[in-house]
């Protein structure tokens, strides 16, 4: 087993860069942190380069699933250096990014959630988990939306990323390809003149777009949908959090 004790080590320098979008793009790898996320990744057969543990970490049952040739032991100083959290759990995985995330699928059937310039990791993770719970086929991260290999988003998704197809694609191209296949496209906007989602009977195959937390969907995408949906507000609140709104619409459309 290799042991690393210096933060100046070449591997360590690369791992730290994986906390940035540019680093992940360059190396086509990502950093996963914490016992539960790593356990889930191993259970799901995720492709990885290294499993990193801090000195004194008890692998327990994980030891049976690990390829020892890819196991690296690090000091507490190194673990703290590569960690994305304040209090790391002493275990990390260097995962390999699946190149298919940038490829349009051959089959557009099913129900898809599209994220247009959504930024907050907590909101994104909640929406991915909600789509998973509702039996959606996948989630498409459009231009401007945060990277789903961001360590915070990986933790927030809590394993749902292994139950869905996650894609990083241009939403305009996605919409045009889906329309060519006869699939419906629904937008979501804060406008009482839009269509009350209660009035919609969604088909078997559709995409639902959720927009930016502050500005909503882009005007270009609004103009490309088959219908833009609105959630009636009964009380005095001006709007709903985007993840809450997504939950209402997701389950409303499949009900």
UniProtKB/TrEMBL annotation:
One of its GO terms (cellular component) is cytoplasm. InterPro entries: Alpha/beta_knot_MTases, MRM3-like_sub_bind, Ribosomal_eL30-like_sf, rRNA_Methyltransferase, SpoU_MeTrfase, SpoU_subst-bd, tRNA_m1G_MTases_N. It holds the Pfam family MRM3-like_sub_bind. One of its GO terms (molecular function) is RNA binding. Residues 31-101 form the RNA 2-O ribose methyltransferase substrate binding domain. One of its GO terms (biological process) is RNA processing. The keyword tRNA-binding does not apply. The keyword Transmembrane does not apply. CDD domains: SpoU-like_rRNA-MTase. Keywords: Methyltransferase, Transferase. It comes from the Bacteria. Belongs to the class IV-like SAM-binding methyltransferase superfamily. RNA methyltransferase TrmH family. This is rRNA methylase. The lineage of its organism: Bacteria, Bacillati, Bacillota, Bacilli, Lactobacillales.
């Amino acid at each position: 087993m290799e042991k690393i004790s210096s933060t100046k080590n070449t591997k360590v320098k690369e791992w730290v860069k994986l906390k940035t979008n540019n680093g992940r793009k360059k190396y086509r790898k990502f950093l996963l942190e914490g016992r539960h996320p790593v356990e889930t990744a191993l259970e799901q057969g995720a492709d990885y380069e290294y499993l990193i543990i801090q000195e004194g970490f008890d692998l327990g049952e994980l030891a049976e699933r690990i390829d020892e040739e890819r196991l690296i032991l690090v000091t507490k100083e190194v673990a703290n250096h590569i960690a994305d959290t304040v209090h790391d759990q002493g275990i990390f995985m260097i995962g390999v990014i699946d190149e298919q995330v940038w490829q349009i699928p051959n089959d557009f059937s099913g129900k898809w959630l599209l994220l247009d310039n959504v930024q907050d990791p907590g909101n994104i993770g909640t929406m991915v988990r909600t789509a998973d719970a509702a039996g959606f086929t996948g989630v498409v991260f459009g231009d401007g939306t945060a990277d789903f290999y961001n360590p915070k988003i990986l933790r927030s998704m809590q394993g749902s990323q292994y139950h869905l197809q996650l894609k990083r694609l241009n939403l305009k191209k996605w919409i045009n390809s889906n329309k060519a296949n006869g699939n419906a496209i629904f937008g979501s906007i804060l406008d009482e003149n839009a269509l009350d989602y209660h009035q919609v009977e969604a088909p078997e195959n559709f995409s639902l777009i959720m927009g930016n937390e502050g500005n909503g969907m882009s005007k270009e995408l609004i103009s490309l949908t088959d219908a833009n949906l609105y959630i009636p507000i009964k009380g005095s609140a001006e709007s709903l959090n985007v993840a809450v709104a997504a939950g209402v619409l997701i389950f409303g459309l499949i009900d």
